[in-house]
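go over this record:
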Amino acid sequence: MKSYNFSPFSLFFIIPFLALHFHASTTEAQVPQKATFTVYNQGDFGEYITEYDAGYRILRHDEDIFFAFPFRLCFYNTTPGEFILGLRAGVPNDEDLMRWVWDANRNHPVKENATFSLGRDGNLVLANPDGRIVWQTNTANKGVTGFKLLSNGNMVLHDKKGKFIWQSFDYPVDTLLVGMSVRRNGINKLVSRTSDVDGRDGKYSLVLENNGFNLYLNNSGKLIAYNGWGQDPSNRLTSIRFNAEPIDQDPKSAGWELLLEQFNEAKPPPPPRRSLLQSFPVGRDSTIILRKVNYNASISFFRLGSDGNVRVFTYFDKVPYLKWSETWAFFSSYYVRECGQPEKCGAFGLCQKGMCVACPSPKGLLGWSDVCAPPTLKPCSAAGKVDYYKIVGVEHFLNRESTGNGEGPITVEACRDKCNKDCECKGFVYKQDIKKCLRLPVLGTLIRDANTSTAYIKYSL
C-alpha cells in the first residue's frame, strides 16, 4: 500500500484546512438559529366557525410564517383533548365557514401542550408533551435551511438555494389544492374522513391505477370499485393533477376552468421550477374539464368526502359573504347520476331522480328516513335458513358505472343458490331481459329502474 509522508511544515497548513472543511460540511445543512421554532398547543381557542364545527388554535410566530392568505396553520379538534395539526383555508372576517384542507396527523391526534418544531437539523416534528413523536418530515441533515407556507397552500422545507427538500403537496389526505397531484398505484391516494366528527381514515378512497382514477368503498377490508374515471390501460397514467386556469390565460379573466390534468409515461408532468415564488408549473398531456365558472377560481380544492362523493369548492373573496361555494360534484345533476352515490340514501334506501323515496323492507316499501337499515344476517357459521324479499324495478349503485350487470346468462334460481352459499352476499340484482345476476357484497343505495331489473334482499329466518 502506498504511503505518504508529510512534513511538520506541511501539516501546519493542511490541518487548519481540513478543520475548516469539516466545519463547513457539518454546518452547511443546518437551519439558521433564527429560522428554527417551537410552537405549543396551548392558549385560547378561536371564536369563529370552522368546518366540522371544530375548535381551533392558530399557530403564532413573530414573523407570522404560518399564514399566507387565505391559508393558516392551526391545531384543531372535533373531540375534546385530541388535536390535529391542519391547514385552514379562509379568514375569520369572511363571514363564512373556514375549511380544513390538509392534515398532518389525523389518525394520531396530539394532546394539550404538544409541540410543533423545526430544529437546527432541518426536521419538522410534531410531538406530544412527553416527547413522543407523532409526525415528522424525516428531513434531518438533508440540507434544509428554512420553512415557508406558500400562497397556494403548499407548506415547504427548502435549502439555501430555494429547492424544496419536502413539501406538503406530496402528501395529500382527502383534499387536493390547486397544483396538487395523485400519483399512480396509491403512492399518495386520497382517503376520506370517517365523518365530520371523526377525522380518521374513512371507508372511501380515490386511487390512480393503470386502468383509471378509481373510487373505492372499503367494505370490511375488501375494496369495492364503485366509480371513477376509466382510462385505456395502455395509456399508463403516472399522475393526475388538480388545476384551475383562466380560460384566456389572463389572470384577471372572468372565466376559469376547473381541471384534472393527466400525465402518462410517454409525457410525464414537467418538473417544478423550484422557486419559492412559483406555485406550480403549467403543462399538460390531456385534460378533463370539470366545470367552467365565471370568476377567479385559483383558490379551489378537490375533495373526497366522508359520504363517498367528490366535490370541488372554490373561494372567491370579492363577495361580501358565502365566499366558499360548491362548484362541482361527481354525483350530481350535471355529472354522474346522484343515485349512484353508494350512501346517497344511507345504509339502505331507494333513490329516484336524486331523491331518497323509500325504505325497502320485507313488508314492502316504507317511508324513507336516515335510520333505514338493511336486514341483520346471522353469521354464516350459525345454523339457520335465509330467504329473500323482492323489490321490482330497481338496480344497485354497482350496476351501471362499475361492476356492470354481473355474471350470466344464468337463471334466477342459480343466482339465488350462489348467494346462499356466499357469506359475503347480502342479496343480488337480477336482469330478466339479459339473464344476468349481480351479487351484492354491500347494499347501500338501490336505484329505481326499468321493470326488467329486480333486487332480491337476503334476510335470516
Summary: The chain has three domains: 34-170, 175-329, 338-460.
